[in-house]
Amino acid sequence: MKRIMSIILTAACFTAMWGQEVETWVGSLLEQYPKARLLDIYKSSFQDYMGAEHLVGDTASVRGYLEQELATTDIDDLQPWYYEPCGVGGRYVRVSLRAVIEGHVDAETLIAAFIASANSTERPAVEDWAARWQDIQDVIDRMGLTLPCYDQDKQFIQQVLEQGQYAISHSPDYREAYAPHYRIVRRDIFDREIKPLLQCGCRR
Whole-model pTM above 0.85? Predict the structure, then answer.
């Protein structure tokens, strides 16, 4: 009986600590991006858990899309950082196109890191992600935030998950305010291939 109680208390403590980490991370995200909605919290969370949104087999398409995005992106619209972690765990990193535009990271280096990140890890099942998101959502609900379109966003996310999907876009509010232009790179690949090229402008 004592052993069972010890296991229960240990699990409860772990859950409480993890919940505090979620609260801290969400608070930090909203401080950095006050116009973010639940959709944007969700997007950062699934990027951290699921990684890139799809496997990449066509390098030419990845290169062409990046070149087009670089040609149409105004550096003055971008956030000041070169990279920031995704989600609570920081398993993946968003690398801003600012790093390429300013010449710190070569486009081909970012392309290679992005493709390696997308293809090198087996993606978790959507059902596993849905369960993890529900845990995150429960914490956010308890925080009592006054996010715009909260119930609408919550319902939309639920519908996406019920369809066996998980990827969504940033909210229009977030895109207009923060011009998100980045590529997702797995943390260990980032640390090895990208981070040594960056000397400043980082949000850790």
Answer: yes
SS3 200: coil
Q: Copy the structure tokens of residue 90.
A: 């920081």
Query: Strand ranges (DSSP E) for the chain?
Result: 83-85, 92-96, 182-186
Q: Could you tell me if 113 and 93 are in contact, meaning their C-beta atoms sit under 8 angstroms apart? A: no
Rounded (10°) CA dihedral 5, 6, 8, 14: 160
In tens, the pLDDT along 71-129 reads 999 999 999 999 999 999 889 999 999 999 999 999 999 999 999 998 877 788 999 99
Distance CA 56, CA 37 (A): 29
Phi, psi dihedrals of residue 182, rounded to the nearest 5°: -155, 170
Query: First and final CA of the chain: distance in angstroms?
Result: 44
